[in-house]
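[agent] plan:
  1. take the single chain provided in the ticket
  2. run structure prediction with default settings
  3. attach structure tokens to the ticket
  4. add a short note for the reviewer (M.T.)
[agent] executing step 1
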Amino acid sequence: MCRKKDRPAGGCVLLDADTSKWNKSALLPQQSAVTSGVEHLARAVRLAAEGRTADAQAELLLIDGDGIRDWFIKHAQVAGLRRVEILGRKREERVVGSRAKLKYPRPELEAKIFARDGYKCGYCGGRVISGRLLQLFAAAIGPAYLPMGRTNLSTHGAALAYRAVADHVVPHWCGGATDEANLVTACYPCNFGKAEFSRAQLGLEEPRPVVTDGWDGLESLAPALQRRAAVNTRAS
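[agent] step 2 finished; step 3 output follows
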């Protein structure tokens, strides 16, 4: 699963060559920095919504953003490629003329998918946050504290790890529809790692069943963040 240039002689340390040990839901296990970081991010967003900007900035600094970014670049985004390589699977044939016209879901459908799935990744089960809310949070505390650039290296690790994506379970190029039945909430790492491979190629089972526990992706804080962001805009 490591990029070839980063892979140690004994193989990837996060994906055993013995496929019987693989997780059948997630492409790879999340590292501890990812699982603990979401708690700090949630607290930071709540503090920002209360107007406690300095405290929110301090809380955000407790996230190992560099470590998470490194994990994403070297492991997560190439997890699917590594799985297919180990399994020796060939790329499936493209379905000609049967692809849905709409490749990416419209914002309203995407939001509906996230809410339906309780803002949790259908593959690894991790909690996620919409890109819109992350942008509001960045505007509320100052973009320098949560950069969201055009490249991995110019993006904070938290924005890479926790951003929600509506993923095609059956890939779009395989004829998968862009509708509620074929879309599932995914975190950025699982979405990028899955790439355009099918579940069969990756050795994955059906997405996890929805488990609701009150997590709403912090969407309830969006109005307060909007107000804070507007104050910052006027002050700049």
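[agent] step 4 note for reviewer: Residues 19-235 form one domain.
[agent] ticket updated
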